């Protein structure tokens, strides 16, 4: 039995779906296209006039490059901590016998806290404690933003870990640590890699918390924001376009890696 | 991988204990309690719990407490008090209208997103082969991890006076002069919000659609229902939890958003988060904390109600493993 949408309905569903994707992707891709236009006025370049002029100008923008370096460092540190803490959170979730739903909700809740409120609250607490705004304060702010996503991804990857595998390992004399290292860890590795990349990108692109928490060296989104509002130059289009497409490519590469990984015969043991 | 692991493990076990089989060892009590049934989640739970409490919960509770304190000119900070001045200031100067308009924007954006997300989920689940499905899912996942700032900003280029929309409208002769209300307007803000948070509606819907057997719709059609009748009577009720979760997610994200209004809103346009920024510019801590408390109360209530009603965790994790 198959569903018969009818040609008209099928076309309608597709048109709305494509419209939805266009709303998400068309503007940033338009910005990306404009960044290849050597003219100062923002408009689509003609194919013959494509140029990398504005990208070549990027290294001379000391403020942007300094901010990019700062952002990359913070994103890396955030990704390390968020992945490690989310792994522990997911392991705890799997082992919990009661209060699972509450634990899940507690880890997830920071995702719904508005960035401005979270940033304001943390910066007020840090300044009361006499902690100066620095990389540490920024990483703290980004950690809570990244953890819910990392947690969900890792938790989903736990579906591959069957209780029987662990029981079998235990029967064969593996203690809990060996069970984790030899059975669980290889099975959830794709989830850990995804969580790391996702956390990295979430931190790299985060703006509202960074606005409150960054110290003397601003992060890239904070610098971009101020430049966007003070007469954006094509160099801003180039930087924004580059960051956008780099983020897209990283997630796409990850999706490909997971897809190829899934095809490998993982469960020969069954 | 597993087979290797099991082999390695069994090799180790044999070296350690050649004589006894697991059952025998169990009976003899020589197996220390290492089976996964022996759960010790609290050591695992402690580090993430500590991070969430110290970085998340404690600052927010302090914001709640501080919202009742009053300004102290001596310290340029606030002093302990039990004052409702912050809350009554919300009612002054039209600040409550910003809260109302934020909730309206959130409801409108969430509704639009659900209307777009439902067909997307249908296409992903029922109209795509495995490859196209994977591609579409990737396209829906990617926006979560790109910059909301850059995506909002790019709408300026699309909707501006010299943007592509105005250029096209003039080119085909629909208008003579550029249309001004396209950018720096509520229209632009809502468009930007939909573009930013649409994936938050698509995801729960795709997860809900996965649990609908297509046979059910086909059966309804066999019995004479038209396609839309089948959607209304079979698909809608079965995916209602996904629709509700999608609406809720977008509503909550929009209620806490700021970038879209900062990038695309007109002069004087505001939304709760932008209002908090403005209040902080004059260091009015009690008022900023009071607004934050109200927003958080609304958002947490919605999420908790949603969770009780539809058990959000079941969308993501298998229960009863």
In short:
Chain A has 270 residues and is an all-alpha fold.
Strand elements of chain A, count: 0
What is the count of distinct domains of chain A? 1
Overall geometric form of chain A: globular
Q: What is the CATH domain class of the domain at 100-316 in chain B?
A: Mainly Alpha
Percent helix range of chain B: over 70%
Please state how the strands of the largest beta sheet of chain B are arranged side by side.
1-2
Number of helices of chain A: 11
Keywords for this entry:
heterodimer; A: 270 residues; mainly alpha; MetI-like fold; B: 321 residues; globular
Would you write up a description of this structure?
The complex is a heterodimer of chains A (about 270) and B (about 325). By secondary structure, chain A is mainly alpha-helical. Chain A contains eleven helices and no strands. Chain A has one domain (about 55-265): MetI-like (MetI-like fold). Mean pLDDT of chain A is about 90; it is low at about 265-270. With about 325 residues, chain B is mainly alpha-helical. Chain B has a domain at about 100-315: MetI-like (MetI-like fold, Orthogonal Bundle), CATH 1.10.3720. Chain B has 16 helices and two strands. In chain B, helix 4 (about 85-90) crosses helix 15 (about 285-310) and helix 5 packs across helix 9 (about 185-210). Chain B is globular and about 75 Å long. Chain B starts with a helix and ends in a 5-residue tail after the last helix. Residues about 1-35 of chain B have low confidence and may be disordered. The interface between A and B is large, with 121 and 120 residues.
